[in-house]
Design goal:
By secondary structure, the chain is of the alpha/beta class. It has six helices and six strands, in the order H-H-E-E-H-E-H-E-E-E-H-H.
Length: 171
């Protein structure tokens, strides 16, 4: 149930939009400037139209030390819009399954792996409220599987190694 104290704690920012700058100065945290203009936005963040959000693979992993949700994305090239999508996946998985989420990004080339491995911070420069740090595996991280015998013994590693070896082992 919503209480008057709950309402007062957030509505004061509607009445005094410069309050954040004042609080930041008093708490000695990075400064927020005094607002020049403020536009109040709708507080309902509900999606009222279908939005398709499909992670490539989503698994619940249970280990001796606990459980987590593993989201696996195969990324073929850099795409800045993926940062927001990946953050959505992590927040949604955490909320829905109540388990810590891990984003694993598999990249076929070095350039994409380097791009995907960069930490992404959401929020103003003074205080990023959300950070995304995927675990990235690129071609340099996977040992080359160079023989048909080796590939037969470890088919999953051979699949991941394929972009690195760049050739068929059919001979």
């Amino acid at each position: 149930m919503v209480s008057s104290s709950h309402e007062a704690m957030h509505r004061i920012f509607r009445q005094e939009p410069g309050l954040l700058a004042s609080v930041a100065r008093k708490l000695d945290i990075p400064a927020f400037g005094t607002p020049i203009s403020v536009t109040e936005l709708p507080t309902d963040l509900t999606e009222n139209h279908p939005v398709e959000r499909r992670v490539d693979t989503l698994l619940q992993i249970e280990e001796a030390g606990g459980s987590y949700v593993l989201a696996v994305e195969a990324q073929g090239k850099p795409n800045k819009s993926k940062h927001g999508t990946w953050a959505y996946y992590m927040a949604f998985a955490q909320q829905k399954y109540q388990l810590p989420p891990l984003l694993l990004v598999i990249c076929r080339d070095r350039r994409t792996a380097a791009w995907a491995a960069q930490p992404v911070k959401f929020g103003p420069p003074q205080w990023q409220g959300l950070a995304l740090q995927p675990l990235v595996i690129g071609p340099d991280d996977i040992p080359a599987v160079e023989s048909l015998d080796e590939a037969t013994r470890d088919v999953p590693m051979a699949v991941l190694s394929a972009p690195r070896t760049g050739r068929s082992m059919a001979h």
